DNA sequence: CCCTATGTTCCCAA
DNA sequence: CTTGGGAACATAGG
């Protein structure tokens, strides 16, 4: 469920709460996650985002990698609160505890001993490589939306923001990506940055159950132009928003101002 | 019972 | 070999 803005929101909040704090204990409640050894007594020295994943660096150079997938959430409990249903692991500190709650149990947690072997992530906010993307895309026939969702090319865009970005730049989601001009790629770059940064400012999009570290809803759902607006009038033209399936994902667009 | 769901990975057919 | 589509993963809600 969380895309880049939601994960970025969590990372910023985690930095405030657990940076340089010692881990007292780790309790894995879902055996599906597997064992995570060697965390007790360590301090978390940095929290960074790699695409949609949270990376927590430890003071022994190991890294804890968390991917929330579809329904994963993190919750900070400062004082005692009950453990909510679907809690998958708990990391305890002296000043509170961090819970991972994940209804569908797709989230993954892993520890990497080496601090150096970071996967190379194409970060759209800091390093949007427009000309490189244009060159890669120029020879691919798949729909532009599928290309935007491929984390190998741009890391962090998911279904909601892909729909929003393509609407903003008036490109039809089914357009073969080889047909996107360099000029249009520059528009995609601009729209991606504007939309993702605004969504971060709003602490993400809550359309169903997304909550930030402190249990609050995001606010970007009030800014959405197409996602979830099937049948409603387009906010830019006189069309009405349609929802069709593209590679199994609900795809919202305006057939009137997003022509192929 | 049906369908839907903010993600990723694997399998298989073209 | 590459490409792309669909299923699978697991669960809740409409």
The H/E string reads HEEEEEEEEHHHHEE
Q: Main sheet, how many strands, which sense, barrel? A: 4 strands, antiparallel
Helical proportion? 10-25%
Rg over CA atoms, rounded to whole Å, is 20 Å
CATH topology descriptor of the largest domain? Helicase, Ruva Protein, domain 3
The total count of helices amounts to: 5
- As a percent range, the share of strand residues is 15-25%
How many structural domains does the protein architecture include?
A: 2
- Assembly level: single chain
Keywords:
N-terminal domain of MutM-like DNA repair proteins; Helicase, Ruva Protein, domain 3; 2 domains; 4-stranded antiparallel beta sheet; globular; DNA-binding
Describe the structure concisely.
The protein has 260 residues and is of the alpha+beta class. Helices cover 23% and strands 22% of the residues. It has helices spanning 4-18, 130-137, 144-149, 159-168, 182-201, and strands at residues 25-28, 44-50, 53-58, 63-67, 72-77, 87-93, 96-102, 108-112, 242-246, 249-253.
Give a description of the structure.
The protein is of the alpha+beta class. It folds into two domains: 109 residues, Alpha-Beta Barrel (N-terminal domain of MutM-like DNA repair proteins), CATH 3.20.190.10; 124 residues, Helicase, Ruva Protein, domain 3 (Orthogonal Bundle), CATH 1.10.8.50. The protein contains five helices and ten strands. The radius of gyration is 20 Å and the shape is globular. The structure holds a DNA duplex (14 and 14 nucleotides).
